[in-house]
């Protein structure tokens, strides 16, 4: 009797143990499901610093992505052409660089910009670095610069930079260490502008406004159409490219003043061997060094400055 009573009690204990185990297992599965539902394919990258690079399927932008990724930054490589962008990421992955993903972005297209913003909000919540590096279909080396080419150049280089920056600033403001880098050119330096009054105005950051930059661009295009570029002291060949970069430089300084929490700088990569330079100049690895250095500046680093590669130089 005593045997049978002890055996039934041990049986009961075992049953209780199993039940407890079963309940714990159920709770575990339940919690796992909740956790899983909050995951996205990119959740594993959320603790990484995240960078968006525009126009990055080739040239300097592509190399910037590679160097940032090697610095343990999660990179969103963007390009306007989806297959060229995917190919670029595959190339990086094949060389052992894994923390790079692709998202389509045409800097001129507001719908494309808002899709990128939604993608980041969903999967990354914030970004830490924005590098605006792209050059429109306009090649500064061309001899005959038409009005249409000039207009397209300003639309891509200046207004494209502005649209992407303004859309991504709210996501940069969620970063502990936000940086914006605009890739510019020595052609954008004020020394290329013959009109002294215009030069003075673009350099007077305390009084310059974004509206005034827009007006300056409109008057440039008017003069371009009316063949009055030389007469009115605009930079010549490649005229629109120089004006677009001078406008980006001035915009960089205004943004640095406005967004005190973000380091906003522009970098001239120098003469770099890419399609744009007809494959002349230094290696892209050298050309990407300046923009990457500006992206990785310490938080107390400079803001609103022009880097000639890695050295601060005058606007
Ligand atoms: N290379 C130099 O010697 C040099 C010198 C000074 C400054 N820079 C500056 O460095 C930057 C990069 O030039 P790079 O030499 O690397 O030129 P690149 O090899 O010609 O590359 C330009 C990139 O911009 C992309 N792009 C053009 N329009 C776009 C748009 N609407 N939206 C998004 N991306 C667009 C191109 O995409 P697709 O492939 O689809 O055309 C390409 O990926 C430019 O800002 C340029 O002004 C270059």
UniProtKB/TrEMBL annotation:
Gene3D superfamilies: NAD(P)-binding Rossmann-like Domain
Pfam families: adh_short
Coiled-coil regions listed in the entry: none
Top-rank taxon, per record: Eukaryota
Keyword annotations: NADP, Oxidoreductase
GO terms of molecular function: oxidoreductase activity
SUPFAM superfamilies: NAD(P)-binding Rossmann-fold domains (SSF51735)
Family under the similarity heading: Belongs to the short-chain dehydrogenases/reductases (SDR) family.
Protein's name in the database: Putative glucose/ribitol dehydrogenase
Organism the protein comes from: Helianthus annuus
Lineage, opening ranks: Eukaryota, Viridiplantae, Streptophyta, Embryophyta, Tracheophyta
């Amino acid at each position: 009797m005593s045997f049978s009573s002890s055996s039934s009690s041990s049986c009961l204990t075992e049953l209780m143990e199993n039940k407890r185990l079963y309940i714990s297992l159920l709770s575990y599965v339940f919690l796992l499901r909740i956790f899983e539902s909050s995951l996205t394919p990119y959740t594993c990258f959320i603790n990484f610093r995240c960078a968006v690079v525009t126009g990055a399927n080739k040239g300097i932008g592509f190399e910037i992505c590679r160097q940032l990724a090697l610095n343990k930054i999660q990179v969103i490589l963007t390009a306007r052409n989806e297959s060229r962008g995917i190919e670029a990421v595959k190339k990086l992955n094949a060389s052992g660089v894994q923390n790079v993903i692709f998202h389509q972005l045409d800097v001129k297209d507001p719908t494309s910009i808002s899709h990128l913003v939604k993608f980041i909000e969903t999967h990354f919540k914030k970004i830490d670095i924005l590098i605006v590096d792209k050059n429109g279909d306009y090649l500064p080396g061309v001899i005959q610069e038409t009005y249409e080419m000039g207009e397209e150049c300003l639309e891509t280089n200046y207004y494209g930079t502005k649209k992407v920056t303004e859309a991504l600033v709210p996501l940069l403001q969620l970063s502990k260490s936000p940086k914006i880098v605009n890739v510019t050119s020595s052609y954008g330096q004020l020394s290329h502008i013959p009109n002294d009054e215009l030069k003075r105005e673009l350099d007077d950051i305390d009084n310059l406004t974004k509206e005034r930059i827009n007006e300056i661009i409109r008057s440039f295009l008017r003069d371009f159409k009316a063949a009055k570029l030389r007469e009115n002291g605009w930079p010549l060949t490649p005229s629109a490219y120089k004006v677009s970069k001078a406008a980006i430089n001035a915009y960089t300084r205004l943004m640095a003043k406005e967004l005190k929490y973000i380091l906003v700088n522009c970098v001239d990569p120098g003469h770099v061997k890419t399609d744009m330079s007809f494959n002349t100049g230094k290696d892209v690895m050298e050309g990407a060094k300046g923009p990457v250095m500006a992206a990785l500046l310490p938080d107390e680093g400079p803001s609103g400055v022009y880097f000639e590669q890695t050295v601060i130089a005058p606007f």
